[in-house]
Amino acid sequence: MSTPLITPDLVAVDLVATDRDDATRQLIDLLAAAGRVTDADGFHADVRAREAQMATGMPGGIGLPHARSSHVTVPSLAVGKVAAGVDFGAPDGPATLVFLIAAPDAGDGDHLKILAALARRLVHESFRTSLKEAGDAETVAEIVTREVVPS
Amino acid sequence: MKLVAVSSCPTGIAHTYMAAEALEQAGKAAGHEVHVETQGAAGSTPLDPAIIAAADGVIYAADLEVKDKDRFAGKPFVDVGVKKAVHDAPGVIAAAVAAVEAGVPAGGPAAPSAVPVTKVDRNAGAGTRIRQWLMTGVSYMIPFVAAGGILIALGFMVAQFAGGSDGVIEVTDIPVSHLLNDFNATNGMDWAALLFQTGAVAFGFLVPVLSGFIAYAIADRPGLVPGFVGGAISVAVGAGFLGGLVTGFMAGFLALWISRWKVPKGVRGVMPVVVIPLLSTFVVGLVMFLIIGQPIASLMTGLSDWLNGLSGANLLLLGALLGAMMGFDLGGPINKVAYTFAVTGLATEGLATDAVQYQIMAAVMAAGMVAPLAMALATTVRKKLFTHAEQENGKAAWLLGLSFISEGAIPFAAADPWRVIVSSLVGSSVTGAIVMAAGSGVRAPHGGIWVLPLISNPLGFVMAVAIGVVVTTGLVVVLKSAKPNEIVQAEQAADAEALVAA
Questions:
Q1: Which residues of B touch A74 (CB under 8 A)?
Q2: pLDDT digit string (tens) for B116-170?
Q3: Are B343 and B361 in contact (CB under 8 A)?
Q4: CA distance B86 to chain A (A)
Q5: Is the same domain home to B393 and B256?
Q6: How far apart are CA B140 and CA B397, in angstroms?
Q7: Same structural domain for residues B86 and B146?
Q8: In terms of one coarse class, where is the protein primarily found (chain B) (predicted)?
Q9: Within this chain, do residues B294 and B318 fall inside the same structural domain, yes or no?
Q10: Is B91 domain-assigned?
Q11: Claim to verify: residue B97 and residue B168 sit in the same structural domain
């Protein structure tokens, strides 16, 4: 893998957001600042469209906004920890951990395997707990890079 | 308990895989074996048919249409959507187990049916997929060409034996009613007519099968009916294999499009059995009969006239070109284009016994034999130019070449593309041109030396192959001698040391 899925500058450890759209936007801005998203507004519209189809909140305080978009250059993950919680439509309450997954539209299968591996890890309680307990951006990025290995 | 599942979601990057992992983990926790096929953006690896066969039940955790759902027909299932599988996988597993214990769903088909394979990789680019659709059609057509072509050729051989020089013409005039009412087991001409008529019927399937399986590759089962019918119409209006190619693609995309219509749940059940075949077949018929059938038929006639009008130098040129294409990528796309051109030519209606189409087939077959045979010969006469592995491959290449399997030369071309391909290109085109000059023709689409008895002017055919092989062998030996291969030298040095040490 030439470009890692995540780097510390894509992690916001104390995100304050009014709603899920705001939380998503702040994470998109991180991706845009890192040059992984070429058009923040365009990508935001793609994520909104996906979110409108089916809320991405998961049990256990997880929000998972994501989209495949032509505005994405490389498969990327941005993570936001929202202490106050932000509603992502999960049945059991607001999300405190928000994962924004950005996938390039034109990506071939191999390119996207890393995201498939990420999605599989997300299901594991231990993975989510370790991320919730991680204190700083470096630790979050390190845990993801270590745990998410394409099969 | 053994369960299989299919997961998919609108984006194909997150929930598809989360559902798969959640189901596998929940299954493991509850002591069940769960295999999940993720139909997501990172490509979909179909479940092993053996695993499906062994499964007790099926879980559909899919928000998109499940691809190739027929594979799971007849098994108890639960259909829960992807979100429920992510949020409550243990609950879904429990529901699936309950469904299995409740037994096979009433009204379901009894057993999963074997599904014909296609050569289509769903993740490939547009150009590759068009070629794969086409090759799926061609690959199902070839056995019909082989069976029909060889039966017809055998019929002619027997006719010549039993009826003398005019037997070949007489055999085509013996009516089917004669076979039904007055078949005489001691009459050679009757046997010849039997072979000929059976082969002719098999040939009648060529265009429908080509068209039907192109459509099948594009649209799965819904494409079969409009594809086959379109192909048959193409034959009826005289549009031949060109028309069949058109109807195959048209039927495939029509069926695919209709099968993606959003319809009320009540109608969905009758879509694949009634609505899709009915609508798509009608549209294909309408378009073929009223709009494009005639123009394509004229085009076909033009193509046939042009081929049969070719003579002398032009014919040699065509043979050389097809030969070069056969020798260029040895089983790759260009080789397949030349081969497909030849095989579909065999499917032309009402060819004379010495039609150019048969010569083209012979030229293509002969040219396709050259590269592997030349490699085999080169490894035999100049061992020192080849690695040990190549020398081994050379032995196998004899048989592959004689059987018209161009791929036998691929190991050589892969190791040293420039020299091998140039040599093969030249030798194969020489062979193609000589076959045209010799006027050899063959009705069988495959078989190499083993269909030699069916080839007209067999001596010319063999000479053409032999000359091409010698040319290619000579070239490859010269080119390889000019610049010795490092691996070969290293191997020989090692051999020499081993010899000294011993």
A1: none
A2: 666 566 556 677 788 778 878 877 887 887 788 778 878 877 887 887 767 767 7
A3: yes
A4: 8
A5: no
A6: 26
A7: no
A8: membrane
A9: no
A10: yes
A11: no
Q: What residue has token string 């923040």?
A: A40
pLDDT, mean of residues A3-11: 88
User: B372 with B473, same domain?
Assistant: yes
Indicate if B448 belongs to the active site.
no
pLDDT at residue B476 above 90? yes
Chain A residue numbers touching B123 (CB-CB < 8 A): 108-109
- ipTM of the complex, rounded to two decimals: 0.87
Q: What whole-number distance in Å separates Cα of residue B76 and Cα of residue B361? A: 51
pLDDT at residue B374 is higher than 80: yes
Inside any domain, residue B481 = yes
Give the list of residues 6+ apart from residue B27 with CB closer than 8 angstroms, or none.
B3, B33, B34, B89, B93
**Is the pLDDT reported for residue A108 higher than 70?**
no
Query: Which residue range forms the structural domain that includes residue B465?
Result: 310-334+352-501
Domain match, B39 and B80 both: yes
- No. of H helices and E strands in chain A? 5, 5
**Which of A23, A78, A52, A7 is closest to B11 using CA atoms?**
A52
CA distance B488 to chain A (A): 35
Domain boundaries, chain A: 8-147
Asked if the Cβ–Cβ distance from B42 to A59 is below 8 Å, we say no
SS3 B44: coil
Show which of B273, B292, B308 is a domain's final residue. Answer: B308
The chain-wide mean pLDDT, for chain B, equals 84
Q: Residue B83: give its domain's CATH number.
A: 3.40.50.2300
Same domain, yes or no: B139 and B98: no
- Chain segment B240-274, per-residue pLDDT in tens: 778 888 999 999 999 999 988 888 877 777 888 88
Interface mutation vs chain A, best among B8, B9, B13, B86, most A CBs within 10 Å: B13
A53 and B CB contact within 8 Å: yes
Once rounded to an integer, what is the mean pLDDT over residues B8-13? 81
Q: Choose the catalytic residue: B5, B6, B9, B36.
A: B9
**How many structural domains is chain B composed of?**
3
Is-contact B365 B446, C-beta < 8 A? yes
pLDDT level of residue B440 (50, 70, 90 thresholds): very high
First to last CA, chain A: 13
Same domain assignment for residues B300 and B325 = no
* Complete DSSP assignment for B127-142: HHHHHHHHHHHHHHHH
Residue B444: both structure tokens together: 């069988």
Q: What is the pLDDT of residues A124-143, one digit of tens each?
A: 888 888 888 888 889 988 88
Residue A151: what pLDDT? 61
B121 in any annotated domain? no
Distance of CA B294 to the CA centre of its chain: 28
Q: Position of tokens 């794969």?
A: B132
pTM of the model: 0.51
